[in-house]
Structures
1.
Amino acid sequence: MHAADAFAKTRAEGRAALVGYLPAGYPTLADSIKAVDIMIDHGADIIELGLPYSDPVMDGPAIQRAADQALAGGFRTRQVFEVTEAVAGRVPILVMTYWNLVERYGVDRFARDFAAAGGAGLITPDLIPDEAGEWIKASDAYGLDRVFLVAPSSTEERIAATVAACRGFVYAQSVMGVTGARAATSAVAPALVERTRKHTDLPIGVGLGVRSGDQAAEIGAYGDAVIVGSAIVNCYLDAPDIPTGHQRLAELTADLAAGVRR
């Protein structure tokens, strides 16, 4: 199952897709699987699994804390395939990862094992297409989606080169700086989406900062997907226990799903 399958469905329904992000292995390995099921049950169209990393330079404090907790619990790269296999088949499952982890595992080996687990593709925030030859070859060999990022600082030439290398969708990083839930969505995001649309027919997902159904509706009016991460992680970080976190995740996902369906 690939991203295109989810976007075919959401476009037929005349709405944006909801993409939910959670680090694999957080709050525990088993509970990360349960959390993905909760998100799918409550309206997520695509799941983005984070691969916990010890030096997450692009992640805000919430995702950093969650990744640290997963690593402290013994999480290993190969376990992302366990999580993927446990939840694959209902919606597309993509992994967002720093490239160093894939290189260390072996690019072809990672692509092979992820495809075998039922994964859809990778989102690679710190890899640019110019340096992605090995990944492009491996993703072609195993039929995986390739999602690269564009940002407000991207030139027209950079946007064109980036979207040409993408498959599945394009990730529009709508604010400069690290990730994190915000009270207001980025004012530059609509302009970035408009600039990106001039170069591609691929769906464009907008990420970084969404924490409510109202914000999801606002972004869903111009983006093809609304990507939510830190607000989902905060369901567990701010909860007194994991069952409460699961309940908060169910409520948040339902609110976000209602937002993209307005």
Note: Residues 3-260 form a domain with the TIM Barrel fold (CATH 3.20.20.70).
2.
Amino acid sequence: MLLSASGCFAAAPPAATPVYGYTVVAKYPHSTNNYTEGFLYLNGMFYEGTGMEGRSGLQVLQPQTGNILQRHDMTGPLFGEGIVDWGPNILQWTWQTHLGYVLDRFSLRQLRTFTYTGEGWGMTHDKTSIITSDGSDTLRFRNPETFAETRHIVVRDAGHDIDQLNELEYINGEIWANVWHQDRIARISPKDGHVVSWVDLTGILPASQKRDAESVLNGIAYDAEKGRIFVTGKQWPTIFEIKVVPK
């Protein structure tokens, strides 16, 4: 509490949300043809969901070379979005067509489809739920079998709603979220949606290496076994392994 000019006690202003920086640990090749919408690391490989009509699908990439080991292409006028692993499967959904796919993780064979309301953006999971974003300030927790919403949280930082939440990753009990057209990642409490801290990635890719204004930061992957964090962006030439450090 603080003593105001009138002699009354006033509440102290809230502490600023911590902001962290980064160091680059390693770099890996990434195709500038890939309009990254979903990104994860699993069993030594990168899994990448790509967008844009006629170019959407899922690719399994060898990290050191960037070579495509497996792929599943979407057909028709579909705009691919986020991906998530669940058990032996990979789920991928689409932006505005309300259609998602369940693929066998080992063969990428399509097992079934599912539907939903609203837009599809990012996906990740904790131990019990699939967590999704739709470009708003709301993250939805879904039943992995039915995809039905079980609860949701509104993401806020210092009393302000944070919208444009995009690609997601679950890291050490936090939801990490790209914010569309921003060079920073929100680290979010899955309990109540408050932003625990930010990771500022300003300057990680020089502007000269970005194809256009939509070549934005969008892609977070986590190697839980080794504690490694990877980030990339839409049509970026590089995947970065980073370490989060104090600014």
Note: The first strand starts at residue 2 and ends at 3.
3.
Amino acid sequence: MTAVTITRFGDAAELRPTTVPRPEPGPGEVRVQVRAAGVQPVDLAVRAGKGPPNAPVALPLVLGNEFAGTVDAVGAGVAEVAVGDEVLGFATFGSYAEYRLISSDQVVRKPVGMPWEVAGSFTAGAQTATIAVEALAVAAGETFLVHAGAGAVGAMAVQLARLRGATVIATAREVNHDYLRSLGAIPVEYGDGLVDRVRAAAPNGVDVVLDAAGVAAIRASIDLGVDRDRIGTIVAWQEAAELGVRRLVGVRSARRLAALVGLYDTGLLRTHVRSVYPLADAAAAHREVETGHGRGRVVLVTG
């Protein structure tokens, strides 16, 4: 089979399609013929040798922490899914490939109406956003500021917080403001003057913050007077302790994913896929994500 592999850390050119043995499932495992795999900012950080700190990396490595496809083989003791089932799932690495092994408790069934590109890029953003919203205890009546609100995690966090009854302000480039409004957020432009613009949008103050943009966004949130225990970051791993804010981490689960898929299937969650690349063009996909400020998801497909 083909897998996109890195043998050393570096830029996107280190992503190379290679031929590797097709794996066989052991007890409790399933083999999924991958149809789509999401490209996340964390994949770029790992490729560059910059993180995340909680995921030890050994080279050579196949990146990709989310995927969707069809189960084509099952190991002993698997009862949750069967050959032929269409699934989406999550893992730490290994999804930039035509086939992948995964524990059967890390996949859920894909709804018939969920396109492959959406399914393959759903779990990382949706689960990370859920973990963040839960950890920060976003509640009805509060004002929630989401930095990088048009990205995969930010857009999900906007919607999940709105479902909880919070008012949401989201930062983004102006080109993404209509998109954020469609999700129920009040959009605010990035850049100089951000603190004043947020104050104008939230005259009664901001209660809680999710940072998916970086250190400058955290500093702006502190300047807004938000309790640092209610400022959480998913990107500034090294700086969080120094700034006294929370580094948001959590354990993904099939139970959580199934609930989120259910929200999508009933129309309560929306997603946006902005670009689709063949698996062999993973380097180009990484370069697009590296440009930053993108709306929605970038996805690799195998067929």
Note: The first strand starts at residue 2 and ends at 6.
4.
Amino acid sequence: MSSLKGKVALVTGGGRDIGRAVCVKLAKEGAKVVINYFDSEEHGAETLRQIKAIGGEGITVFADVTKQSDIDNLVAKSVEAFGNKIDILVNVAGGLFARKTIEEMDEAFFDLLMDVNFKSVFLVTKAVKPLMGKGGSIINFASQASRDGGGPGAAIYAASKGAVTTYTRALAKEFGPQGIRVNAICPGMIATKFHDDFTKDQVRVNVAAGTPLRREGEASEVADLVAYLASDESSFLTGNNVDINGGLAFS
């Protein structure tokens, strides 16, 4: 893989699971990593510890990526630490929060899901774009749910991730003439806290059994895909929503 040495990467939701794996992988490939965390300072610190353990460089920055003021501070801290450029943006931050039918949902829950999963992508990308030049790469996180409508009680989650897939295509066309690529990743069943919290054990067993590779994915495997999309080896890939689900669903 092409080295990411000398590049600066900003990763939202970098405190755990896939976000942490992405941060560590990008650092391993040579990038300087801005680790955004929200729910736990300890989680962010652990990601940084793992980066330093492999000789990498990074900083942690708290930010609620649904709030403009927090995002402005996040970008300012990146500039303060690593200079006036961001080469790689990975919008991992997102969440399901609860499984609810439409009867159980209220407007506040709808707004929460749309803000965390989609508005955050809009706000962070807009803030980072002025610092990104030719050769830049933006990687958004959608979901298999954006392909198939999601599992029970995940309708608005699926819709918010569907917005990410469409926005990714639109930005690819808008940013392409400036030499900036925009792609998204659509993970399937990946062994993370997300599914620990929101998917029943037997459902996970059944899904894994129905997957051609007969297992769940690992966060490190998703991180490998992110690193590829961030690198020059994917220099003619843009506007793609890349499935990583062990063959469970095709598009």
Note: The mean pLDDT is 95.
